[in-house]
Design goal:
Elements: H1 4-11, E1 20-26, E2 39-44, E3 50-51, E4 56-58, E5 68-69, E6 74-78, H2 81-88, E7 93-94, E8 106-110, E9 116-121, E10 142-144, E11 157-159, E12 163-168, E13 171-174, H3 204-207, E14 222-230, E15 239-244, E16 250-255, E17 268-279, E18 282-295, E19 302-303, E20 315-323, E21 336-342, E22 345-351, E23 367-375, E24 386-389, E25 396-398, H4 405-409, E26 411-414, E27 421-426, E28 432-437, E29 442-447, E30 451-453, E31 460-468, E32 471-479
Parallel strand pairs: 6-7, 16-18, 19-20, 22-24
Antiparallel strand pairs: 1-2, 1-10, 2-6, 3-5, 4-8, 8-9, 10-11, 12-13, 14-15, 14-17, 15-16, 17-18, 20-21, 20-23, 21-22, 23-24, 23-25, 26-27, 27-30, 28-29, 28-31, 31-32
Length: about 475
């Protein structure tokens, strides 16, 4: 480590227009004690590849042996690279020793001849972004606005706004390690600044692919996405909603301040600009801004019989469902989860407190439900926790009708599943029976019989309706 006197001597050689730029600093992450997410990002501003053999850092000890940084590319140096990589899905490099000061210090890049290539003397007070801006322990890194302006001017730095999707100590980790900065600077950074972020256009399909562990392949990708808003805003203070394209591929959208003034309206055709992240397995766009093109027709829900990665953020519908435990339905205006059975499959239905469902009575009987596919899996691999999230009461429909409880309790059907016959036993008189498919199509009607032949039915779930004057019972049956 070089002495402070050496730093001052080297600073006399320092030029603002640097070939290698200290472009982003996370000096006080929102952890307790470990500071394992400390990092700095270097940017090659030279226009040519640079061999870093013999380079060194002031502020911590770093070995650059065998390394180079390509033109217009980034290199992230971290106190604990595996921890940082797990959060952002990048390839950071661990430094050898040292830690960043929470109060501010001098950081510098020094070339093999001893010349200081770039120097930043950052602080957490004065003109520098601070905890009131979301940095200094509140979750955000600081990002350089203009590479060709004074790197030691605190007004040339701003708090990061792009979310990693990770929450630590109730604080959202924000930054753009290994990609261009997206922070909102107070002034136009001018020519040479990296605030004029290029948002290349991608399709939603391009950015929602995941690996074998359910980790999004596009984490950290800066992009523009176009889609139609489905559902409302699932937050009071932030923006949380879903956009879906014409192929029913969707992505979650999150923004804590970039979409200020936008009222989430289902049917809006929008273009969103931001960075791909992931939160509890759900791939999201952390949005910096939005452009509304007009209104578009909403999709028809896709009928599915399983919830998985393919249904995440898509508009879907389940048929033949019943609530497993009505006590889970709080109906008190809060958010809650309900276990439901749809045929032989069991799912989690999420009722959000920002919908008009949360203070409604429980859905009784057999129903169909439409909604947005979701996921909440707080540990890798992200292969569980898939949900359906209905948007409003109109997403529910009673498939066959109401059920008379006493009449229903007097009837039993077995076996379930069945291969040849369903045996019906009842102490009540049954006048007529109907059988419906899971999409409500009447496929059989006839008089009551104790042994109902289902041998010619295709395998799947059906609904047996038993009627007697104004009474009715609906039983779910399964054909093997």
């Amino acid at each position: 480590m070089k002495s402070f006197l050496t730093v001052l001597l080297l600073a006399s050689c320092y030029s603002i227009t640097a070939q290698i730029v200290i472009n982003e600093i996370m000096y006080n992450p929102p952890e307790s004690g470990t500071d394992s997410l400390e990092y700095i990002e270097l940017y090659n501003n030279s226009g040519a590849d640079i061999n870093l053999e013999g380079y060194s850092m002031i502020g911590f000890e770093m070995d650059f042996t065998g390394m180079e940084i390509a033109a217009d590319e980034y290199m992230v140096l971290a106190k604990n690279a595996p921890a940082l990589n797990a959060i952002f899905g990048i390839n950071a490099i661990s430094w050898l020793d040292g830690a960043l000061s929470n109060g501010g210090e001098i950081l510098a890049v020094v070339d093999p001849s001893g010349e200081m290539v770039d120097m930043v003397e950052f602080a957490s007070t004065g003109d520098w972004p601070n905890d009131q801006d979301g940095t200094d322990g509140e979750g955000a890194s600081i990002e350089l606005c203009n590479v060709d302006s004074d790197h030691n001017d605190g007004q040339n730095w701003a708090a990061a706004i792009s979310s990693s999707g990770e929450i630590i100590n109730d604080r959202e980790v924000k930054g753009t390690p290994s990609i261009g900065n997206t922070a909102e600077c107070s002034e136009d950074p001018g020519e040479g600044g990296n605030m004029g972020v290029d948002y290349p256009s991608y399709t939603i399909t391009d950015v929602i692919q995941v690996d074998a562990n359910g980790v999004a392949d596009s984490i950290g990708v800066v992009c523009a996405l176009t889609g139609v808003v489905h559902g409302g805003n699932l937050s009071v203070d932030e923006h949380i909603f879903t956009i879906i394209d014409g192929s029913n591929n969707g992505i979650g959208v999150f923004s804590d301040n970039g979409l200020e003034g936008y009222v989430v309206t289902e049917g809006d055709e929008v273009e969103l600009f931001g960075t791909i992240g992931q939160f509890n397995g759900l791939t999201q766009l952390s949005a910096d801004s939005i452009s509304v093109a007009g209104m578009s027709t909403s999709l028809t829900p896709e009928v599915v019989n399983t919830l998985d990665e393919s249904t995440e953020s898509s508009l879907i519908k389940l048929f033949g469902c019943q609530i497993d435990d009505n006590d889970q339905w709080t109906g008190d205006g809060s958010s809650f989860n309900v276990d439901i059975s749809c045929g032989i499959n069991k799912y989690t239905m999420r009722i959000d407190d920002q919908t008009n469902i949360s203070n409604s009575p429980a859905i009784i009987g057999t129903f169909g439900v439409a909604g947005i596919g979701g996921q909440f899996d707080n540990s890798e691999p992200f292969l569980e926790g898939y949900q359906i999230i209905p948007r409003y009461i109109a997403d529910f429909d009673v498939l066959i009708g109401t059920i008379n409880p006493a009449f229903d309790a007097a009837i039993t059907v077995a076996p379930i599943p069945a291969s040849d016959f369903i045996h019906i036993r009842s102490v009540e008189f049954i006048e007529k029976i109907n059988i419906y498919s899971v999409v409500g199509e009447l496929i059989y009607t006839g008089q009551m019989r104790q042994n109902l032949d289902v041998s010619e039915f295709e395998s799947g779930v059906y609904f047996l309706e038993l009627r007697s004057e104004d009474k009715r019972s609906v039983k779910r049956i399964v054909k093997e």
